[in-house]
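User: I've been trying to design a sequence by hand for this structure and keep getting stuck. Would you show me what you'd pick, starting by listing the structure so we're on the same page?

Assistant: Good idea, let's start from the same input. This is the structure you sent:
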């Protein structure tokens, strides 16, 4: 039985924040990917008399663009397996030490082959010509220094990784707060003529949805900015900012040749080189910025200007009558600006190049000297020097390469932050906030399913409403005792179950 005065449960959103709004002809209801339906566009100027039959209704067949936020992909292509941030929603049943997705091993293939060849050369010379073994004292001294260097490299890299994640968590928090302020706390306009109230309510709903879409657009624009993709031609943002006057939109429109540079099309050898971590095959990530023929602006910052102007209009029109709501709106817009500046700081302040070069050189010197020192340890069979050197190099270079990969947590490496997932989360949460009208407390409080004194009683609000204040207060006092007794009962039952199991095990052992 439905609750009296309760709110109807919304339909389950589709992956990426879609909400069900219609279906195709001859089929059941289908889900619409959020922020993926393109607006109906007409050539020429907009008039007051468009072809209304061209505008799709909620029940008419319509074509949908793919969800740009979804990263669901079941293929096993190399491009999906070794590149792009790892999808945290996927689960692998392989033991962690056997998993390849997310492993640094592909980028270590060539270095390990080089180390194996070097160790083989040293071993062959020692066996055929002259022994090249040296004292292991150097191994101990250099090992201590290399350990300090790798510890410093790993700690600084992970600190940047964790800081980047904290900024995106703040972005999610600010987005939720702004969505709630725009949708829940912003009231309707006052003094609207009665014959214009319906149009005014429709306009206000569209205004709120537009502002919430800008919150989503900010997160997506920030993701592209951190990856040196400054244009608006990407599938996940083009429909969100096409109505805004921004430098990025103008550059996309007037500089199509440079825009295409953001879509990587590499040949076979260059792609394989990137998979294997060959530095000569890596392109300059800022190449698009350097070749721009128009000012690119700062798209996330420009979006914040539009959000701030909407907050000003709400405050000046008296639609945020509670001062705290105005403060919340402005504080969270400022928090978005802080996230923008903070993520740019993480991106543009890597470990000083002097440290990076010195740590890499010290590590490689240690690895290359290893065969000379291991020769004196394997006196019975010097050929064990080769696999021992490779294993040691894998351990040492693996830590070095991991630190280099996560130093920039916003990139496209497998171990980088899954920014697409965070953007999809924000988009879905904006849809969830806007999926219902502003809830009224009396509606959901007075529901028969509101068991106000559970677990003492399963009676709903209407039952207790008829019992009076005195009975309710007395029941609240008894609820404390009932909760305590119930908790002790669960503990006794659990302890009895453990005792019965131990007794059964004892009987089995004694019978054996």
């Amino acid at each position: 039985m439905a609750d009296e005065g309760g709110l109807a449960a919304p339909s389950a959103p589709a992956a990426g924040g879609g909400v069900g709004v219609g279906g195709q002809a001859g089929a059941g209801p289908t889900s619409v990917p959020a922020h993926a339906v393109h607006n109906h566009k007409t050539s020429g100027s907009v008039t007051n008399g468009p072809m209304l039959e061209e505008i799709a209704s909620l029940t008419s067949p319509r074509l949908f663009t793919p969800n740009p936020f979804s990263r669901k992909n079941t293929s096993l292509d190399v491009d999906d397996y070794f590149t792009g941030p790892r999808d945290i929603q996927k689960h692998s049943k392989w033991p962690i030490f056997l998993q390849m997705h997310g492993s640094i091993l592909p980028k270590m293939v060539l270095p390990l082959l080089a180390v194996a060849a070097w160790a083989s050369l040293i071993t062959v010379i020692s066996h055929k010509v002259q022994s090249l073994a040296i004292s292991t004292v150097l191994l101990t001294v250099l090992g201590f220094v290399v350990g300090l260097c790798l510890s410093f490299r790993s700690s600084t890299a992970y600190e940047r990784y964790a800081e980047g994640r904290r900024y995106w968590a703040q972005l999610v928090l600010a987005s939720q707060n702004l969505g709630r302020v725009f949708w829940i706390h912003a009231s309707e306009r006052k003094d609207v003529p009665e014959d214009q109230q319906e149009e005014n309510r429709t306009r206000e709903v569209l205004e709120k949805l537009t502002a919430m879409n800008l919150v989503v657009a900010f997160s997506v624009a920030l993701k592209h900015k951190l990856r040196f993709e400054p244009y608006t031609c990407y599938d996940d943002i083009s429909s969100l900012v096409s109505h805004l006057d921004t430098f990025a939109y103008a550059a996309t429109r007037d500089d199509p040749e440079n825009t295409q540079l953001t879509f990587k099309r590499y040949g076979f050898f260059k792609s394989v080189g990137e998979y294997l971590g060959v530095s000569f095959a890596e392109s300059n990530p800022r190449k698009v910025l350097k070749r721009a023929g128009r000012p690119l602006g700062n798209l996330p910052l420009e979006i914040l200007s539009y959000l701030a102007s909407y907050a000003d209009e709400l405050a000046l029109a008296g639609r945020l009558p509670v001062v705290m709501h105005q403060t919340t709106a402005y504080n969270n817009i400022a928090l978005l600006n802080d996230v923008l500046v903070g993520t740019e700081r993480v991106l543009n302040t890597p470990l000083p190049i002097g440290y990076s070069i010195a740590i890499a050189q010290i590590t490689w010197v240690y690895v290359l000297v290893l065969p000379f020192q291991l020769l004196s340890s394997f006196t019975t069979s010097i050929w064990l020097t080769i696999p021992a050197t490779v294993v040691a190099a894998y351990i040492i270079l693996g830590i070095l390469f991991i630190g280099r990969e996560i130093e920039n947590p916003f990139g496209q490496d497998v171990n980088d932050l899954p920014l697409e997932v965070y953007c999809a989360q924000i988009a879905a949460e904006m849809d969830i906030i806007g999926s219902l009208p502003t809830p009224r407390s009396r509606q959901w409080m007075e529901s028969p399913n509101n068991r106000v004194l559970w677990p003492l009683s399963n009676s709903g609000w209407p039952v207790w409403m008829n019992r009076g204040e005195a009975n309710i207060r007395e029941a609240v006092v008894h609820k404390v005792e009932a909760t305590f007794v119930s908790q002790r009962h669960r503990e006794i039952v659990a302890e009895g179950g453990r005792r019965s199991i131990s007794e059964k095990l004892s009987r089995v052992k004694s019978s054996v």
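That's my pick for every position. To get oriented when you compare it with your attempt: The chain has three domains: 1-43+52-88, 100-433, 461-511. Residues 100-433 form one domain.
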